[in-house]
Amino acid sequence: MSDTSQGEGWWQASDGQWYPPESHPDYLPPPPTESTLPPPPASAAVPSPPPAADGSTGGNGLAVAALVLGIIGAVVGLIPLFFFLAFILGGLALIFGLIGRKKGKPRRKMATWGAVLGLVAIILGIIGVAIVDDVFDDLDEAFSNDIVDDGDVDVIVETCGPSSFGAEATGTITNTSGKQQGFRVGVDFVDGGVLVGEGLEFVDGLAPGRTARWSASVFDDVSPSVACDVEVRYSIFDE
To answer: If you average pLDDT over residues 24-29, what whole number do you get?
Structure first.
């Protein structure tokens, strides 16, 4: 405030005094210049990712794959009849694990565990195959040693010929051994020298000295001259 104007923009109020431009009610401040602009804020620093537990920052997808395949392979290796999958999964886990270890520190422990579990899966697969092979050997031996001993059974063929649905043979079987036994009565239907069908009848739990009836049939058409070749074996399901 002054009794006289002090320069451009000063204005005189009703009280007769002069005032600077910025005190006028209609005063508009000048646009800021580059020199009056505040400095831009400093850019925020982007934090770097924390290092991995083993001191590295890289990835190792093969290590993850090895661990997953190793776990699945080891579990599958415990399931009967799925041992072949344990071979495949275990082999892949072992290969991926060894390659993952060679890549360096990233997830090296994971790669090691994957390789170990892969080896376990392979071993379980070998054990499973050995068990299955042993079971089949036992079954083959059982079927090979099921021929009836002389004097243990007496078989009579009563009928052999065409039936309403094909061919049928009937008869009786007597257990002449000294113990309860089961038998399989197999019949080959031969027509004109050609085997046209095979029938089978199980007679289980036949006590010593007891007689039971049997019947074996096929659905093949035969002539009235069909012949029936009968063979009796022990039933492995009744031992």
So the answer is: 71
Minimal CA–CA distance to 1: which of 13, 18, 21, 24? 18
For residue 173, what are the contacts with CB-CB under 8 A and spacing of at least 6?
A: 153, 154, 155, 156, 183, 185, 203, 206, 211, 212, 213, 214, 232
The rounded mean pLDDT for the chain is: 82
CA distances from 54 to 50, 59, 106, 108 (A): 11, 12, 7, 8
Structure tokens given for 61: 């997808």
Would you say 80 and 94 are in contact if contact means Cβ atoms under 8 Å apart? no
**d(C-alpha 32, C-alpha 112), whole Å:** 66
Q: What is the pLDDT of residues 49-79, one digit of tens each?
A: 565 554 444 557 888 999 999 999 999 888 8
Chain centroid to Cα 203, Å, comes to 41
